[in-house]
Amino acid sequence: MGERMILMGAIAGVHGVRGEVKVKSFTENPMSIAAYGPLYDDQGRTFALKLTSKAAKDQVVIAKIDGIADRNAAEALKGRRLYAPRAALPPIEAEDEFYASDLIGLAVEDQSGKRYGKVADVQDYGGGPMLAIEGTRPFDLPFADAFVPEVDVKAGKIVIALPDDFFSSKPVGDQEDGGD
Hints:
By secondary structure, the protein is mostly beta strands. About 5% of the residues lie in helices and about 35% in strands. It has 1 helix and 13 strands.
């Protein structure tokens, strides 16, 4: 698996006694997770999903996996992360749209051309996407228009706009308030 793999979902638990699993889908339409062909785990093991639910509930779908026939086998897969090759995802037509994974490896510079490194990862812990920037001074940056006004995947770069005090060493909340 030399090509870039995209996280599509994770096996969240078991459903019933016949080996069905609950899959937390990270796709825009949760029911489309099985449409990208076989998925793969971190070790490269193949998972061919066949959805058995008619709808998703809270981004979770029920699926049957080829070769998994009972509850114990399904239970052993709990927590497994499922990936698809980037090439299996549909191409994006709009010039100003991209997959989050397409940002990884892009150069990071500000509007004056000062280089900060490159995008190492895109993460989302629930508060919105964050870019992990690696360089001489690694930092995380909210992926929002105010901080990232320009993304140019074709040119291989993003342009960032940092507040003047972005790298100040004073933690938030430690400012003097002028007394009680």
